[in-house]
Write a structure and sequence with these properties.
alpha/beta, TIM Barrel, 3-stranded mixed β-sheet, 19 helices, 51% helix, globular
């Protein structure tokens, strides 16, 4: 149900919650909040064409979640504990939510509740925000509405993945590109993205004669953006900031590259923001590429992943700099039997995206007619992106991520039985990753290190 006005929204949801004299949320019926209000606020946050109603739905979803005990948080405290050696054997799964976001988030919350897991992250990259049509405020609202619907309480980690400086725009107009990145960071902070991965590794120049010169623009801009985050983060929130030394899909990272990056980064951050908190983690290249490499028949090619890179750089990051460790990108299409090796290698965080997209589109419950319509749209709208020699399956595999935005309404409108089947499959997959990555039972260490204090703002219950 899409509301025509804020008054209509508040009138319809009045059985679930109301407002006190300061116009703060007052919960009237927990059950109606979870079964009625959460669903309708999420839908209006995602789809309402009226900007004012959409904004109101976003704000009220966040306020309602806080009133019921779920709030956006920084994972910095947990990562600091990992850097001190107080928490180990844990790799935090970070899930890129590209679409069907209420169902995907709900499935992850349900899997987490079943496993007593508190260490997991919802994330979206700069490019994904564009092609999935999910601006930060909407993304946060839908995630938190899913927390309300599932009864999840506690800190919710929402992350800006690959907050990336794009090489071509930066080369032509550096000031404009950096201004765009800083504007995105401000929007993400305002939306409760208290975990931000600064990605300036796109500007590493391997043609330079030494490691410092190769990493220089990378560490200079990473420090600049970290200082920007520290100036704009909310009071009493220490945003978790990640850096990156090697672009995913290129040559594997080395300890020497990491040392060159960190030396330069620390010097620059000290110059720009003396005493400011630095990075909590470092992303490295180990041999994977985003989404895997599709073969002509649509299968994904085997990947030779170097766990030694994660172990060597992660160990150095913890011992010398107090970071949580190394981060693995592009991992969701790896063979299942590899995932238990990530916590054993000291990998602190792993990013998972395309495998869940594949699960959704290939699931027997997903309407075949809709899948055909999506593929036809991709051929018409993105045919110029087809690489020479790509089969139909390879083309669809690579470009299907760009269908989430154009088909957003249709995907939200899938029949309840279809959504339930997809959600169950996602929940099972999330449960597998939580178990394999050592994240089961992590709720207690999360609450000890991150804290159990909610967002402030006068939300009340009555």
């Amino acid at each position: 149900m899409l509301y025509e006005s804020l008054d209509a929204l508040r009138s319809d949801l009045a059985p679930a919650y109301g407002y006190d004299e300061k116009q703060c949320i007052r919960v009237r019926d927990d059950g109606k909040c979870r079964q009625l209000a959460a669903v309708r606020l999420a839908e209006n946050a995602a789809l309402n064409p009226d900007a004012a109603v959409k904004a109101a739905a976003c704000n009220e979803a966040r306020a309602l979640a806080a009133a019921l005990g779920a709030w956006p948080a920084s994972i910095q405290g947990l990562y600091a504990a990992m850097g001190r050696g107080e928490v180990d054997g844990l790799t935090v799964p970070a899930i890129n939510v590209r679409g069907l976001s209420f169902e995907v988030a709900g499935a992850l919350f349900e899997a987490a509740l079943a496993a007593d897991c508190g260490a997991f992250i919802f994330e979206i990259a700069r490019t994904e925000i564009g092609y999935t049509e999910q601006p930060p405020a909407e993304f946060t609202a839908v995630i938190l509405a899913a927390a309300v619907a599932t009864g999840y309480a506690g800190p919710v980690f929402i992350q800006g993945d690959h907050v990336q400086v794009r090489p071509k725009p930066y080369a032509s107009d550096p000031a404009a590109e950096l201004a765009a990145v800083e504007a995105l960071i401000q929007a993400e902070l305002a939306a409760g993205f208290y975990n931000i991965d600064v990605d300036t590794s796109t500007l590493v120049d391997l043609a330079q004669p030494d490691l410092d010169a190769q990493q220089r623009v990378n560490y200079q801009l990473a420090a600049r953006l970290t200082a920007f985050i520290r100036r704009h983060e909310p009071a009493r929130v220490a945003v978790s900031v990640g850096g990156e030394i090697g672009e995913v899909g290129t040559a594997n990272s080395t300890v020497a590259e990491f040392e060159a990056y960190m030396a330069g980064y620390r010097h620059e951050l000290g110059r720009l923001a003396p005493g400011a908190l630095g990075l909590s983690k470092i992303s490295v290249q180990t041999g994977t590429s985003h989404g895997g490499v599709p073969l002509p028949d649509g299968r994904v090619a085997d990947v030779k992943l170097d766990f030694g890179v994660l172990e060597a750089i992660g160990s150095r990051a913890r011992r010398a700099y107090g970071l949580s460790g190394a981060v693995q990108h592009g991992a969701s299409t790896l063979p299942p039997e590899l995932f238990h090796r990530f916590p054993a290698s000291g990998c602190s965080e792993i990013h998972l995206a395309t495998g869940f997209q594949n699960l959704i589109f290939a699931h027997p419950a997903f309407p075949a007619e809709l899948r055909r319509a999506i593929d036809a749209h991709l051929r018409a709208a993105h045919g110029n992106e087809r690489q020479a020699g790509d089969s139909d399956e390879q083309f669809a595999y690579k470009l299907r991520k760009k269908s989430w935005g154009p088909f957003k309404a249709q995907l939200w409108g899938l029949p309840p039985a279809t959504r339930a089947s997809l959600r169950a499959a996602l929940r099972e997959q999330f449960g597998f990753f939580i178990a394999q990555l050592g994240a089961a039972g992590s709720r207690d260490p999360v609450l000890r290190s991150v804290g159990a204090a909610q967002e402030t703002g006068g939300r009340s219950r009555g």
